[in-house]
Amino acid sequence: MSKFFRILHTVAFSALLVFGAGWQTPVAARSSALGYAALPTQQQALVDDLERRSFDWFWQSADPKTGLVPDSYPGQSFSSIAAVGFGLTAYGVGVERGYITRGQAAARTLATLRFFAAAPQNDSEDDATGYHGFFYHFLDMKTGRRAMRYVELSSVDTTLLLGGVLFAQSYYDRDTPQETEIRQLADTIYRRVDWPWMQPRKPLISMGWTPGGQFIPADWKGYNEGMLVYILALGSPTHPVGPEAWTAWLSTNHLTWGSFQGQTFLNFAPLFGHQYSQSWVDFRGIRDAWSREHDLDYFENSRRAAYAQRSYAIANPGHWTGYGANVWGLTASNGPGGLVVKSAAGDRTFQGYTARGVGLDYISDDGTIAPTAAAGSIAFAPEIVVPALETMKQRYGKYIYNDYGFVDAFNLSFHTPTTLRTGKLVPGLGWVDTLQLGIDQGPIVLMTENWRSGFVWNVMKKNPYIRKGLERAGFEGGWLGAGTPEK
After folding, report:
1. pLDDT at 485
2. Whose CB among 78, 182, 307, 322 lies 3.0–4.6 Å from 147's, allowing a Cys bridge?
3. At how many degrees (to 10) do helices 155-171 and 227-235 cross?
4. With contact defined as beta carbons under 8 Å apart, do 78 and 141 qualify?
5. Which of these, 277, 213, 236, 244, lies nearest to 133 by C-alpha position?
6. Structural contact between residues 176 and 162, judged by C-beta atoms closer than 8 angstroms
7. Closest to 274 in 3D by CA, of 200, 195, 359, 203
8. What is the rounded CA–CA span in Å between residue 400 and residue 429?
9. In DSSP terms, which residues pair with 259 in a beta bridge?
10. Which is nearest to 325 in space by CA: 21, 14, 111, 106?
11. Distance (Å, whole) CA 173 – CA 194
């Protein structure tokens, strides 16, 4: 995996149950009609096994002393603060599923929050974990400091970390010294984030900052994973941004609203942009001004995005090997490249780590399937996701499914012997990764549990900062009620 491309990615950016692997689900099917309990036994076992193995990735890879979670695992890696946020939330899922005890989860969570609360915050190049309450995207697993000099102080990755921090604040609600300290530390970490400082071009929020280059010349604007950035910035009790920030974020939606692969929705090509914010926030039935105007909520929007990706795979305009109704899913992931492979059919370019996806905004497809794209969409459209997971595991599980569930990605069209950044070539099959990434494992665990029980969503509904952020963004209805939004 290219570290350079990982940084570029951050800066730039059911009416009917389906049992049969090839059955075509009507577009109008709604995911809410298919629950876990309605699945046949073998599909329940599949979901159980994948959720547990994906959880184990976090539990076994994290440093128990600092709570730092690696960006990728197995093997040596720097830590991803976003992966830490997913991990903090996954520990609660582990308690509810009986994988670990509440005491074990609380101890790991407390170690993590103690580390981030005490980590140095300053403007130095090498001796800091963060600055102005934000944290560097990647941290050294041993020292906890900025991993490399090209790593940015990341607004979105800090936000994903805070998703886990605020989950911990609301989940650990018992009157014990351990859980009391968790709540206090979580509050401290969130309250000190200076959101207005990350607004050099108000009212938008910048993607990040570096000591050498200062603020990145790109802001969060348009529908993407930045949704949670603005919600947390609006909900801050100490350093909030104004409600005009949400309006500015929405201002370019018209550029990506439209029809793609038979679905009309607000496009964002890779599916992670639909999954990340909704891993923590239940957008079913709540609407802001934009979604009221377009008569849909963001959950429904993402359901349509999942269907569009599946339709794209069925059409398979790139003629990639394996694509079909139950083999689909493009998102940010590892890949076999980058290189250009020449053949009688023409040149084909394969990427390493990149934000693959398809939509009105862009198309980036080199034949690389990321199982998390489908698995992390299970809450949106389980009727098409479960058969896809079942098919991919049945066909290729020997090579793409291991102790930690699905590997990050695989490409059945790549067969060129070369020096690979990650993964391996399997004769007769293609390229398969040998790693899992925390930011891809996280949506699998969280969204699977949200679909099964609503657990993470329900915990987050109790968090006053989440509610305040949503209300200041103009959301109302559903579980928020019909009260007047806060200003």
Report:
1. 52
2. 78
3. 60
4. yes
5. 236
6. no
7. 359
8. 11
9. 264
10. 21
11. 26
Q: Is residue 8 within 8 Å of residue 154, measured between CB atoms? A: no
Q: How many CA atoms lie within 13 A of 100 on its CB side?
A: 20
CA–CA distance, 433 with 404 (Å, rounded to integer): 13
pLDDT in tens, 366-390: 999 999 999 999 999 999 999 999 9
| Angstrom distance (rounded) from CA 449 to CA 93 | 7
Cα–Cα dist 204/1, whole Å: 31
Query: Whole-angstrom Cα distance, residue 447 to residue 99?
Result: 17
Tokens of 107: 């101890």
Cβ 265 vs Cβ 301: under 8 Å: yes
The closest alpha carbon to 155, from 116, 212, 204, belongs to 204
Query: 157 and 81 in contact (C-beta within 8 Å)?
Result: yes
What counts of helices (H) and strands (E) characterise the chain?
16, 23
Residue 409 to residue 54: CA distance in whole angstroms: 14
Q: What DSSP state is assigned to residue 482?
A: S
Alpha-carbon distance of 61 to 55, in angstroms, equals: 10
Q: Is the pTM of this model over 0.85?
A: yes
Q: What is residue 250's three-state secondary structure?
A: helix
What integer is the mean pLDDT of 465-473?
98
> Is residue 394 a contact partner of residue 320, using CB atoms and an 8 Å limit?
no
Tens of pLDDT, residue by residue over 115-167, are 999 999 999 999 999 999 999 999 999 999 999 999 999 999 999 999 999 99
Phi and psi (nearest 5°) for 440?
-100, -30
| Residue among 32, 10, 29 nearest 282 (CA) | 32
Q: How far is CA 131 from CA 118, 126, 238, 344, 355, in A?
A: 12, 12, 16, 53, 27
Closest CA to 119 of 134, 108, 130, 107: 130
- Sole residue written with tokens 């290189």: 339
Name the strand (E) or helix (H) holding 294.
none
Q: Which residues contact 238 (CB under 8 A, 6 or more apart)?
A: 191, 192
pLDDT higher than 80, residue 12: no
pLDDT band at 10; cut points 50, 70, 90: very low
In angstroms, the CA 53 to CA 371 distance is 14
Contact in structure between 25 and 18 (CB atoms under 8 Å) = yes
Please give the structure tokens belonging to residue 455: 């657990």
The DSSP result for 155-180, as a single string, is HHHHHHHHHHHHHHHHH--SSSHHHH
